Amino acid sequence: MLRRLYDWTMSLARTRHAERALAGVSFVESSFFPIPPDVLLIPMVLSDRAKWLRYALICTIASVAGAMVGYLIGAMLYDTIGQRILAFYHAEDAFARLQEWYEVWGGWGVLFAAVTPFPYKVLTIFSGFAGLDLFTFVLVSVVGRGLRFFLVSWLLFLIGEPVRHFVEKHLNLLFVLFMVLLIGGFVAFAYLL
Questions:
Q1: Number of compact structural domains in the chain
Q2: Which of 41, 84, 89, 132 is the 20 to 30 A CA-CA neighbour of 10?
Q3: Could you tell me which residue, 73 or 32, shows the higher pLDDT?
Q4: What 3-state class would DSSP assign to 48?
């Protein structure tokens, strides 16, 4: 099943809809969706390495736009939509502890979440809720998300085909590692803050 999913993703990466799908996933991941855009970005760069810069830019722009939606959810719709999103991720308790942490770190916390597997969407909502300066929020989002997506794309551009062979050979192990990082980000958020 995992092989079929991988093959489907690789085939999607070669279609005319790939860039729109990449932008869509990047956008919704920053405000409420749990799956990071890397699941499309990586196969797209591996399918056409010459477009690595374009794909990273699409990811960055769409992700920052989605982050601004998350910010607006926190600032204006926290009581209706924001709380439901946090409940879905079981992040209500961590959200309360985040307030203290945020007073110390502010924009640096957003930058950290933008680069790591940490649940960025929770910090975008919290940034709006806490009233983090919008300029600071957008600036650190552009820097953090750009750093993440451009670095991943550039490394795939440089290494290319060996990475593809490695991924195909170790697909099950990489999937487990991906899930550990994804779930680990949520666990770290819930229990370490």
A1: 1
A2: 89
A3: 73
A4: coil
How far apart, in Å, are the Cα atoms of 99 and each of 72, 96, 112, 132?
Answer: 17, 6, 16, 11
Amino acid, single-letter form, for residue 54: R
pLDDT digits (tens, 9 = 90+) for 180-192: 665 665 555 555 5
Letter string b/e over residues 32-66, b meaning 16 or more CB atoms within 10 A of that residue's CB: bbeebbbebbbbbbbbebebbeebbebbbbbbbeb
Give the max Cα distance, the chain: 48
Give the integer Cα–Cα distance in Å for 135 and 47. 36
In angstroms, the CA 111 to CA 108 distance is 5
The DSSP code for 35 is S
Place of tokens 């945020």: 102
Question: Which residue segment(s) compose the domain that 15 sits in?
Answer: 2-192
